[in-house]
Each structure stands twice: as C-alpha cells, then as structure tokens.
Amino acid sequence: MGFTARLILMAKRHWGTLAVACLGIIGAALLNLVTPEIVRRLTASLELPGGANTQLLVLFSLILVGAYLLRAVCRFISLAISHLAAWRFVPELTLTVYDKLQSLSMRYFHDKQTGELMSRMINDTRQIEILVAHALPDLVSNVLIVVSVAVMLFCINWQLALLTLIPVPLVVLVGGQFSKRVAPLFRINQQVLGELNGVLQDNLSGMKEIQTFGQEGTEHEKMVKRCKRYSEVNIRANFANAFFNPAVEFLTSLGTVIVVGLGGFMASRQAMPVSDVVGFLMYLSLFYQPLAILARLVEDVQMAYASAVRVFDVLDAESEVKEEPDAGELKAERGEVSFEQVSFRYEEKEPVLEDVSFTAAPGRMLAIVGPTGEGKSTLISLLERFYDPLQGTIRIDGQDIRGVTLASLRSQISLVLQDTFLFNGTIAQNISYGMPDASVEQIVQAAVTARADGFIQGMPDGYNTVVGERGVRLSGGQKQRLAIARAVLRQTPILVLDEATSAVDTETECEIQAAIEQLSGTRTIIVIAHRLSTVMRADQILVLHHGRIAEQGTHQELLEKNGVYARLCHVQQLQEQTLQFLGGSL
Ligand SMILES: Nc1ncnc2c1ncn2[C@@H]1O[C@H](COP(=O)(O)OP(=O)(O)OP(=O)(O)O)[C@@H](O)[C@H]1O
Question: Where does the ABC transmembrane type-1 domain start and stop, copy by copy (predicted)?
Fold first, then answer.
C-alpha cells in the first residue's frame, strides 16, 4: 500500500472532520468563479447602447458582496477544520510511533541515536501536519479551480481555450522533472536533520565529558560540519525550487500572451465579443495561478513523503522479541528461575553465552560473579526478554518465558541496574515509579530498606526534592539507593541487583546487604557483583567464565575447589590488603 493510502487509513477517525474541511475548500474554490463571470457580464452590459442600468449594477455588487462573504466563511471552515483534523491526527501519529518504539526490543536501538528517533517523532510527523492541513486542502481546491475554470473557458470560446492550454503540457513536464530531481534532496534534508538532532542529543547528554576532556573545540568542529551539511542540503533543495517556480510562472504567462494577441485580434475583427476577451483574461489568471500553486505544492508533498518514509520505517520495524499470539499470564508464586542450555550472541561474532544451565531456588539468594565482559548482565537481559536466546529455554516457576506476555513477565521481576536511570521528578515519584499508587508509608519503608531514608530526610524538600534530569542533583551512591528502593517497593517474587551497590561506600553497602538478606525467604534474589563481600553470603554462587558456567556452589565450597572463584577472591584480598597497607602508611 502506498504511503498516502496508509496515512489516509491511519487518519480514519478524522475522515468526518476532513470531509467538512473539504466542503469548505470546494465552496471557496467554486466561489472564485463568480468574479470573472460578473466582470464578463458587466463588460457585456457596458457594450450595449446606453450602458448598464443601475439595477444591474446594484445586483452585480450584491452578488459580489455575497460571494466574497460566503468565500470568507468557506475559507475559515477549510482552514480551521483542516488544522483541527491535522493537529488531532499528528499527536496520534507521534504516539503511534512512540508506542511502537516502546514495543521494540533492545537490538533495534543498537544502531539508532536517540535524537534521530526524536526527530522522526517530532519533525517528521510535523511535516505530515503540513500535508494534511496545507498541502492536501490546497491540492483539492486548486485542482477544482483548474477544472472548473477550464470548463468555463471552453464554454466561452473552445478554439481560444484550446490555444491557451498549449503551455499546460510544458508545466506538467517541468513539474514531473522537478519532483524526480528534488524529491531525493528533501529526503536527504530530513535525514540530515535527524542526524543533527542525534549528535546534539548525544553532546548535550555528554556535556560533562566534553568539558572534562576539553573537547569543546572538537565537538564545535563536528557541529560546524553537521550544520554546514544541513544548510547545504537545504540550499540545494531551495535552489531547485527557486528555479522551478519562475519557470512555471513564465510558462503560464504564455497563456495570457495568446489571449492578448489572438483574443484581441478576434475582438477587433468582431469574431469575438470584447466581454468574452475580458472574461477570458480574468478566468485565465484564475487558471494559471492554481496551476503554479499546484506545482509549488510538489515541494510540500515531497517533504511529507520523505517524512512519511521515515515514520513508516519505524512503524514497520520488526521486534526481535515477540509475544506469542496465545501468550498467557505469568503466575510466579514461588519465583524459581531456571536457565536450560541457554546460548546467546549479540552479533554474528563470538557467542556471549554458551550452554548455560542453572536454577535459582525460590526465596534464596543466587550470586553471579566472573571477570568483566563475561555475560553476567546479558543473563539478566535474557531473563527480562530484552533479547531472546539463540538456543535453550528460560523458565520461571516452570513456565517458559516465551509463552507468557511481556508485561506479566516484567511485572514479576524488579531490576536494579548498574547505570541507574532516574526521571526528572521528585524522589517519591522516582521510588514509586513501578508502583504509582504506593502509599507514603510504603515509599518510606522501601527507602529505609535501601538505606536511602537518611539522606532523603536531610534534603531541603525531603521526599519532594526534584532530582533533575537523570538524577543529576544526586551522587552516584544516592541514585543507586533510590533505584534499590524503587525495586524493593514493587515486592515482586524476583529481585535482581546488577552491580547495584558499586557506587556506595563499603559501610553503606554492608547495611544494604544486610537489609536485602532480610528479604531473602520472601523473594528470589539474584545478585551480580564484583565485590566478594556482596556475594559471599549467597546461598549459591555461579562463576561465569568465557561465556560458560565454570563453577557453582557456596562460598566455602568454591574456595575449596581452588578454581576461578578462589583466584578472584585471592586477587581481591590482595587488593584490600594493599589498600589497607597504603592507608596505614599515609
Ligand atoms: N548491546 C550489545 N551489542 C553488542 N555486544 C554487546 C552488547 N552488550 C554487551 N555486549 C558484549 O557482550 C559481552 C558481555 O557483556 P555483559 O554486559 O553481559 O558482561 P558483564 O559480565 O555483565 O560485564 P561487567 O562485569 O563489565 O558488567 C561483552 O563482550 C560486551 O562487549
């Protein structure tokens, strides 16, 4: 299906409003025909011996006033109603794109820039507003004017009408060439704007890094390049436009030349009344003006088309993670998590996980350790179905997670990530993010568990303190504690902490650890941590090495094995001893 047809179908809810706008457009277009006809008749009556009588003049004036008034009403209806339809449709389209993005799995975002996607949601949908509220009404009204004026011209004098239409094929030819050559320029234009947005968004988010590493100059140069490119593609597109419009104007003027020359000749030989020549000229100005507008509309339509391509590109994207049509609700009563021979890779290179099998017993604490980059966080991404494994099955309480709805799966797991993300709201809003109807007592209790209550109470506005974008007004450790509180508050059967306490001091970490251990028994806890102090009291420890489970057991059992885990412990003990020694000698 073509983009226009798809857009029209998507705007189904607004067909009624658009129909009213169309009526206004049609009315205004037809009322344009009144003036030339009145002028023609006036000229004819002035040609009569004795000239036009007063009654006729009054009648003509009244008809003109009525027509102008009615045209103003029709114009108001068409303008107001088409904008109403467009501005109701555009937010719907933005939302459709947003919802689609929310439904896509993480792999889709790997090669996308946030700013570029924002550009699709805001700039590209705005172009479609221009199409609906401006280009389409103009298209309808001008086509109507051209057709009705052509009919009138043929009624007055078909031979002269045929001759005046000579430039039309030339206008169509030039218009065709224009759309072929300029369309790609507008497509590039929208793409370059998207890229510019992407870089801007990236740089604004990374402003601290830019300043810390003194990269202001380099980033400025990068921006200069992007802005220059944006300006160049715009100049090229508008230059092409600037050539096209005068060319069409010149061609359409040829019609007037024909009427002045031929019509004047025929009138001087009494082969045609003067009134018809005047009427012809008046109609002709109405005929070629819309034709020129139609040619100019090509630009708006091309821009909207380029934007529609980018919008539909998102809407047509396939999510790697799909829900089964008959997916049921996950009922995790015990919270047992089992991985059965799970293998996974991000790209067509080495596998990140190979043949991983383990079970996290319900109500117990499972710790996952291993060198960096070995796939620990990837295990959690698979559990949340941000990605699907290449092979193997993941089950919660015996149910394959591929067979349940994503919403029900994620509602059973609370996740605290290493890179904490906070929204620009209050502390209370951030803690209750996954449970918006939580009471103040519940929020405070969760904060107490996460050892966050103390610093929150010390803030000027307590739980109503606004944290800033991404929680910029809080320290790393404070942000992590809010994220833990947020996860604890949800009271899900499974709690996952991925390096959740890496930014807090050792003392606070011990306190949080103790509080989380208290939760053990009420939910299954999966902890990923580098600090062994965090994992040593876990009921079971998995050691991930080269994408496989190298060892598993309790802290004591693994030490006795004297393998990877024992080596990790040994290295950490050495580090701690060195730090203590350095601390003592300073
Ligand atoms: N989105 C991604 N696309 C491609 N490769 C990825 C992606 N995310 C992670 N990887 C790669 O997968 C491997 C495992 O990453 P993962 O984050 O799971 O490791 P980890 O054990 O949690 O590391 P760390 O202890 O440093 O947090 C790494 O080699 C990483 O480079």
Answer: 19-303
